[in-house]
Amino acid sequence: MVEMWDAYDRQFNKIETATLVRGKTVPDGMYHLVCEIIVKHNDGTYLLMQRDFEKHLGGMWELTAGGSALKGETPMECAVRELREETGIVSCNLQELKRIIHDGHHSLYVEYLCITDWDKDAVTLQDGETVDYKWVDKTALLEMGTDALASSRALEIVKELNI
């Protein structure tokens, strides 16, 4: 099944006359929307998800659940869906933290925080996306090197906003 995305301009405005397709080149001046969710448990630990070994950066850990918004989805709808798909966590209580423009990937990132009391043993993995998970405290998280994390974007947000 072909995955369709809405096209956006650099100011996060939807371009109504354009549709993007996963795997096709995103034209200059257009971006696709990606939502990422940092999951923090009420006890102060953070959820890390290990990427499937068959994916790009396979085996590395991610501080976020997330992915591309499907055509017609708002950023919040995308975040709720991706969180549920990749972790099993159901939450509508997400707080937007930051918006980031990544020109090189033609991507607009909307970063969210989910603070939850979800049963830490009830996280589910998404076949083809994740193979393991773990909860780590902030000290352990901040000590993780870029060789272990697939992206430092979310880690920088944790540091910057002291969440």
Question: Brief description of this entry?
Answer:
The chain is α+β, with helices and mostly antiparallel strands and 163 residues long.
| String of helices and strands | EEEEEEHEEEHH
The average pLDDT value, as a whole number, equals 95
> What Rg do the Cα atoms give?
16 Å
Compute the separation of the termini in Å: 38 Å
Number of helices: 3
- Spans where pLDDT lies below 50 across 5 or more residues: none
Largest sheet: 4 strands, mixed
State the assembly state of the protein chains: single chain
- Name the beta content range: 35-45%
Characterize the structure shown:
With 163 residues, this protein is an alpha+beta fold. It is 17% helix and 38% strand. The protein is built from 3 helices and 9 strands, in the order E-E-E-E-E-E-H-E-E-E-H-H. The chain has helices at residues 75-87, 138-143, 153-161; strands at residues 4-8, 14-21, 32-41, 46-51, 61-62, 64-68, 94-102, 107-116, 130-136. The strands form 3 sheets. It has a 4-stranded mixed beta sheet with strand order 6-3-8-7. Strand 1 and strand 2 (14-21) form a beta hairpin. The protein is globular. The relative contact order is 0.22.
